[in-house]
């Protein structure tokens, strides 16, 4: 059912990818070199502020930006200890390497991503 399954390791996407299930989440985080996961909620003001930043990073960096709606995927969010949104979790080579809560500036996110893509 995963419509955006990775077709090759290292490949990037130019726009954020919406996670549809826990299996899809596993495919995305293990199928790409660097993945920044945004745990968000539609009702969250700071999440909406972060959205254009993440869209820019998706097109400007080699990382895949994945979005997880915490209301639709409560168990998945809980498994990462998400207590507030937005929470950003960075994966490199399938492993969680960083986690931040709150809105971060584009430069901070870019340098976080670039620390694992170079």
Automatic annotation (TrEMBL):
InterPro entries recorded for this chain? Answer: Thioredoxin (IPR005746), Thioredoxin-like_sf (IPR036249), Thioredoxin_CS (IPR017937), Thioredoxin_domain (IPR013766)
The cysteines covalently paired via disulfide bonds are: 44-47
Q: Where is the composition biased (Polar residues)?
A: 1-12
- Annotated region Disordered: where? 1-24
Catalytic residues (positions): 44 (nucleophile), 47 (nucleophile)
Enumerate the residues marked as the site Deprotonates C-terminal active site Cys. Answer: 38
Regions that span the bilayer = none
Q: Which GO terms describe its molecular function?
A: protein-disulfide reductase activity
Q: Kindly list the GO CC terms recorded for this protein.
A: cytoplasm
Q: Which UniProt keywords apply?
A: Disulfide bond, Electron transport, Redox-active center, Transport
Residues at the site labelled Contributes to redox potential value: 45-46
The Thioredoxin domain extends over 1-118
Q: What is this protein called?
A: Thioredoxin
Q: Which organism is it from?
A: Natrinema hispanicum
């Amino acid at each position: 059912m995963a419509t955006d399954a990775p077709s090759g390791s290292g490949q990037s996407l130019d726009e954020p990818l919406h996670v549809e299930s826990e299996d899809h989440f596993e495919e995305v985080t293990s199928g790409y070199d660097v993945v920044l996961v945004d745990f968000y909620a539609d009702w969250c003001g700071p999440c909406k502020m972060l959205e254009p930043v993440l869209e820019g990073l998706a097109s400007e960096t080699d990382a895949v930006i994945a979005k997880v709606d915490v209301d639709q995927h409560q168990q998945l969010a809980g498994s990462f200890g998400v207590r507030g949104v937005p929470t950003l979790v960075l994966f490199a080579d399938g492993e969680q390497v960083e986690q931040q809560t709150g809105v971060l500036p584009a430069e901070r996110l870019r340098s976080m991503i670039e620390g694992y893509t170079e």
